[in-house]
Amino acid sequence: MNKKKISWFDISSWGIEGKGWDDTQRYYDRLPFRARRSIPQAVWDLSRSATGMCAFFESNASRIHARWRLRTPQLGEPNFSVAGFSGLDLYARDKGAWRWCGAGHGVHDQKPRQALVEGIVPTARQFLVYLPLRNPVVKVEIGVEQGSWLKPVAPRKERPMVYYGTSIAHGAYASHAGMVHSSILGRWLNKPVINLGFSGVARMDVEMAELMNELNAAIYVIDTLPNMDPALIKERAEPFLHKIREAHPTTPLVLVEDRPHTNAWIKPDLMKFHEENWRELSRVFSKLRKAGDRNLHYVKGRSLFGDDNEASLDASHPGDLGFMRMAEHLYPALKGLVS
What we know:
α3 packs across α7 and α5 runs parallel beside α6. By secondary structure, the chain is α/β, with parallel strands linked by helices. It is built from 7 helices and 14 strands. It has helices at 41-46, 82-86, 181-189, 206-212, 230-247, 268-290, 320-335, and strands at 6-10, 54-59, 63-70, 89-94, 97-103, 113-118, 125-130, 137-145, 150-153, 161-165, 193-197, 219-223, 253-256, 296-299. The model has no long low-confidence stretch (mean pLDDT 97). Helix content is 25%, strand content 24%.
């Protein structure tokens, strides 16, 4: 049994990437404390998770340990793995790319402790650790054994991609925390990402647009249709987009259609609903483009999960295959817009 002394490092001491506001009630909250009075309560409650947040460090250790404290006893869901819901996720830099190397699967209570990876060649590497997608965290520490070193790496200062979406952006049902498509895109685009995914309640509230205006984004991605219907799109899409344009008139802004449920091919009323959603969002997009917004862009959703009906666990939410396909579908649309 390994009994070497471990030195522990609290990641909050050097800073978290993916946190848009400093004036939060809890360190790992995603929205500022003052927002609790303006946004729907359900959005506020879901903003307490650290979805998409990550930290960087360098180390020459052969084992990377972690211990973290979770705020709630709910560790997962029937279709949502514990490693994604409550675990950490570790990537290492290799030849200029981020490669997965270990996840915090050993979550049995609210105070997990485990080696995220072990048996690696003890040479200097840069690491990236993602925080849990849904279970709010209280504290996260990375540990290395005696004889090894760890050097904190501060979060990047460049403008982030701001991704506003639904339970899909909130990570359901990714098997590990770095597998949500917005984080995959962040790695591929080499950009910080602020994840504003709110399960079931991302509905283009104008109050969310006002908050998003406070962020100096490189690009905004709006992916809320899975929580909306044609009437709500008609009511809210234009005011929401106009509000963002008040503060960011030329920032690239990408509208994403909702994916069809993977069994919609056999449920004609459901497919009709998706097509009506697409038609209404497309109408808004065309209207604003004709009015002169040349920095507004559009991504169709019909093939967002692919075309073989295999990418979802419950017809609505992607598995890892679905998240990868979403990233592959969105990447060509985003790569030329991000500077």
